[in-house]
Amino acid sequence: MESAVSYFLNVKDRLNFLDLELKVYSSARGLICLTIKGNAMVGSIFKTLVILFLLTACTTFALANDPIKCAGCKTEHFLMNHLNGPFTEATGGELLTGKCGNKSAIQLMATGKIDFAYTCKPHHKLVKKFKISPELTADWVTTTIARDPIIIIVNQRTEIENLTVEELKSVFSGKIKNWSELGGKNYPVQLAYLDDTVESGVVTVFKETTMGKDGTLYSDAKKLGSPDQLGAFTKSRPGTVTFMSMNSYKKEYGTIVAIDGVLPENEKIVQGLYPLAVTYHLVTHKGDNPSNDFLKYLGTPAGVEHINEVMVALPQKEIMVP
Questions:
Q1: Tens of pLDDT, residues 227-278
Q2: CATH classification code of 68-140+280-318
Q3: Rounded distance between C-alpha atoms, residue 152 and residue 276, angstroms
Q4: Which of 282, 290, 293, 318 has the highest local Cβ count within 10 Å?
Q5: Domain segments of the chain: what residues?
Q6: Residue 146 carries which DSSP code?
């Protein structure tokens, strides 16, 4: 982010006004150095007024470029961090993010400690659940920005093309031992998913959409360190099933399985028909506030493109500034 002075004036600028020569310098730390030379007739009061004007203007720009403070959902946090760089490049703004979960984010927003919250549920549901006073949330508004789909992949020789959510739950809880139990080939079920040490929200999203928030995955599984490793393992071993984010998938990994008869196609995801997807929102204040610049950016072609790099952006008409 540019310093306040370099934003207001260039790194070095010279201003001639009524025989007054004013040099303004800014350092990398944003320090200001003023050098004034002028006709003796130019009074010290006038010089002081010029200095105060410039310092006030610089302060205004500094405040306008303060980081936008936000916090929220531990899986949506990855999207916010992904968007932060392009947002800064495009607008000069910056997000200061915090991964704390929905409850803490809503409480931080209610106490005015953050500018907006990013959540996996609309704010009215969270406010009711966490018993936040309606008076504190009267000017809040929820904007849906993206959906985060998880895809299920099986080795091609397994010959499984569709699973219900309940069948998928039975597979990953260890209840289904052989694919023949679900109409597939006679191969033992081999589970594979990301290791717990991998910094990713994929496992969390999968559990929330299948096993339930407090559900557990069957521990007798191959745990690997990246989607590429999962894909290579699934490709090489008949009977293997894994899951990953949609943007990580490569055709060579295996067959994408439809869930409840729905394939994870963009149109189906946007319409909310694909069951293994979490919807992400921003909760902001109505009216003019620091969050508006970020919301406006998300509605631009560049913003939509950057969301689609990791998730599925909703149509631009659905991304609206409150």
A1: 999 999 999 999 999 999 998 999 999 999 999 999 999 999 999 999 999 9
A2: 3.40.190.10
A3: 9
A4: 282
A5: 4-64, 68-140+280-318, 148-270
A6: E
